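Can't paste images in this forum, so I'm doing it all in text. The chain is below; anyone willing to post the predicted structure tokens underneath?
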Amino acid sequence: MELRKGIMATQESRKVTTQRLLEMKARGEPIACLTAYDYLTASILDAAGIDLVLVGDSAGNVFAGYDTTIPMTVEQMLYHTQVVARGVKRALVVADLPFMSYQVSEEEALRNAGRFVKEALAEAVKLEGGEYICPTIRRIVNAGIPVMGHLGLTPQSIHKFGTYKARGATPEEAERILADAKALEHAGVFAIVLEKIPAELARRVTESLSIPTIGIGAGPACDGQVLVTPDMLGLFTKFRPRFVRRYADLGAQMAEAFAKYRADVKARTFPSEEESY
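Text version of the structure:
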């Protein structure tokens, strides 16, 4: 029993790599992922045992206050990735390549992906798109940079979609997503995010691949799950997708703490004698 506990403890403390994610899928161990945009959150996620920390361009929504992820720039995402990477020891750090950082040319995509690994110390990058983006993925992977794919609802294409409704609801679109997933695996991605697609389709995709799938609004059959951290903590309340489970209500707690602080300052009860020099 003690030996088994020791082996389990070693497994929990091992550095997460792209190879370890493949091992987790093979043995049926779910992959826990969350987003981070700052050092403090990243270090807490890492200490909690989160397997993969995604520096998402969702920072555009929950950090910068934009309505979409589209305005985020390479320089902004590099900064977020740099501070997150400093807070992580065990988890795999994956950075989103922002809109128009990889769509113009394969050369520009490779250059930008390289900056995230070299300058920001990301261990992998994520980009959106299906079969059409595979030549770019191959170029990046061949340079030694791991790539995560992203299918289904791809937020950088929101103006093309015109809506945030679930993707893959029609047989034609479902088959396209399945074909895209296989193409991405063949191109060399180490995992694929499946966002807001029917649970049955996500199951089909997951079972058809040897690489892990990470679901967000894609049901329980994926190899792992990811949520936007401010969503699951109740910090971001502008809208609440159906797939978000609130694990805390920190927004309300923070508002209460701020109000109490203000009241103490106004009443001159803060700082106290013990809190003064």
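The longest helix spans residues 171-187. The longest strand covers residues 147-152.
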